[in-house]
């Protein structure tokens, strides 16, 4: 087993190889180890940089897990904790896939119900926000629902990081096809994307998008949605433009 210093040295070397896309060519990322888990802290320019950084260090020998606390600084206007928390809650309330979930907000150390479950209860989600970081807790019925909740948080204005601690009950085995299913659900939820025109394939945590759209903005939005999905390590965008 390599020493902690060796692991950190190799992790720093791995980060230097990341093809960063944000404003900073080499962002300041701080690393520390805790019981074999490598914790990433600092700021990066985009969700692409955040995902790629975590994926690169995950392959380092001696790293048992990666805890990604990197924050995205993409130029978005900062919002207050309450406004961000409320925005995430609103997205969950409006998502048809969470219509049977109990939604709660963590406000000043207290949990306040926002909506009780409608019909047959299918889990609960608690939303907290601090300094642009959204934390989600609770339990839902599938990995796709867990991942969708995380993407809805990312879609909320002012969100810089999502810590998704939602558990799935009963537990499911996570595989590539679970990532594909989650992204398809995300694309169907995104009002700016026609999911029927896009095909999704996942292999080794790398998502490939195929199909066609009518403009570049939609093409980029579909790719951005893929980067937001928890568990994705890279995205290949083969979507073409068609008038």
Automatic annotation (TrEMBL):
Question: Coiled-coil annotation: which residues?
Answer: none
UniProt-listed Pfam families: BON
Quote the InterPro entries the UniProt record gives.
Answer: BON_dom (IPR007055), Lipoprotein_DolP (IPR051686)
> What protein is this chain from?
BON domain-containing protein
Ranges for domain BON: 3-74, 175-243
Taxonomically, the superkingdom here is Bacteria
């Amino acid at each position: 087993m390599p020493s902690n210093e060796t692991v950190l040295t190799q992790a720093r070397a791995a980060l230097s190889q990341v093809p960063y896309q944000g404003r900073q060519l080499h962002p300041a990322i701080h690393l520390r180890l805790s019981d074999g888990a490598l914790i990433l802290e600092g700021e990066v320019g985009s969700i692409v940089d955040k995902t790629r950084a975590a994926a690169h260090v995950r392959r380092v020998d001696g790293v048992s897990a990666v805890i990604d606390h990197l924050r995205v600084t993409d130029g978005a206007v900062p919002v207050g904790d309450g406004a961000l928390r409320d925005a995430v809650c609103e997205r969950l309330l409006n998502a048809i896939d969470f219509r049977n979930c109990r939604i709660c907000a963590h406000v000043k150390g207290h949990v306040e119900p926002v909506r009780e479950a409608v019909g047959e209860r299918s889990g609960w989600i608690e939303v907290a926000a601090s300094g642009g970081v959204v934390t989600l807790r609770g339990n839902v019925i599938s990995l796709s629902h867990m991942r969708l909740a995380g993407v809805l948080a990312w879609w909320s204005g002012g969100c810089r990081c999502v810590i998704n601690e939602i558990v799935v009950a009963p537990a499911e085995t996570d595989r590539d096809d679970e990532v594909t299913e989650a992204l398809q659900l995300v694309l169907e939820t995104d009002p700016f994307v026609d999911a029927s025109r896009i095909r999704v394939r996942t292999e080794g945590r790398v998502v490939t998008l195929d199909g066609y759209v009518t403009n570049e903005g939609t093409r980029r939005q579909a790719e951005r949605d893929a980067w937001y999905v928890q568990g994705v390590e890279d995205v290949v965008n083969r979507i073409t433009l068609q008038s």
